[in-house]
Amino acid sequence: MGLLVAGLALAGVARAEQPQATRSQDRAGPSRRLAALYPQDGRRDLTGGDFDRFRGAGILWCRSRDGVPQKAAAAWLIGDPSTVVLNAHNFRDRRLAVTRSVADCYFQIGGRNYDFEPDSLVLGTAPGADGLHITDDWAILRLTRPAEAVPQPLPDPPDLPIGDIALPVTMVSPAGHGNYRGPNSLERCAIRRIDQPSEDAIRRARHDCNDGYGGSGSGLFDEAGRLIALQSASLAMNSRSRFDIEFHYGSALLFEGGLLAALRGRAEAGGRR
C-alpha cells in the first residue's frame, strides 16, 4: 500500500494521496478551495436529523502555534462515550514523525468540548513501522471524562467482496471540507472498489465521494446506516475531473482487522484499554 503523501507511488500510479487534516485550507485561493473533486457535487449541510441518525459525529480541534483553536478533522465517538476514533495522520506524518501533541487538541460533539488523556493515543501502525499507509491510518484516543453524547455502536466487519463493486454509501463529514462552503456536509456517493487486505489486515475502499482538506476522518455509511469505513485521503486533491478508479478517487479504510479488534478490546475493558 502506498504512503500517504506525494512522491511515492500508489496503486501503480506516480501520484499519491495526501492527508487532508494536515494541510492549511488557506494555501489555495478561494476558487480552488471551493472546487469539488468531481463534476458532480451532491453535498449538503448536515441537519439535526442527520446528527440523530449518524450518532457519534464529532470534530477534532487543535491549537495553532499561537494557541488559536482550529478545526482539524472529523472524529467519531464509537463504542462508549470516552472512545474517539480518527486518523493517525492528525498526529504523525508519512514517516511517523510527530506533527502535533495530543495535549494541543480536543474533541467537540453536541456543542461541548472534551479534553483527551494525553498518553492515551493508540496508533494503527505496527511496532517498528517506518511509514504511514491508508490502511493503518487510524488512531484511538480516550477522553478525560465521558462525553454527554450517544456514541456510534461498535461496527460489524463489512461483508464486502474484493474487487470492483457499486455500493451506495453516505459520506458524513462533521468537520466539513476546505472545498465546501458549509460547516459540515453529507453526500450520497458510492464505493467503487475494495482492495486486497494490507496493513492491519484492513482493506482500502476506493470511492467517488467529494472531499477536501479537513475532510479526513469522515464516515462512510451503508444504506442501512451502518458505519463501514473511515476516510483517509484522496488522489489529486482539489483537481476537478471525472472519477477514475486508478487516477482520481478517494480512499477509506474499512472497519475491520486491527482497528475493529482494538475497538472491541477497549469495549470489553470498559473503555480503559
The secondary-structure class comes to: mainly beta
Report the helical percentage.
Answer: under 10%
Write down how many β-strands occur, each being a DSSP E stretch of 2 or more residues.
14
Low-confidence stretches: 5-33
CATH architecture of the largest domain: Beta Barrel
Number of domains: 2
Strand order of the largest sheet: 6-5-2-3-4-8-7
The major sheet is characterized as: 7 strands, antiparallel
Distance between the termini: 28 Å
User: What's the helix-strand series?
Assistant: EHHEEEEEEEEEEEEEH
Nearest-angstrom radius of gyration?
Answer: 17 Å
Number of helices: 3
Q: What's the shape?
A: globular
- Provide the CATH top-level class of the largest domain: Mainly Beta
CATH topology of the largest domain: Thrombin, subunit H
The CATH homologous superfamily of the largest domain is termed Trypsin-like serine proteases
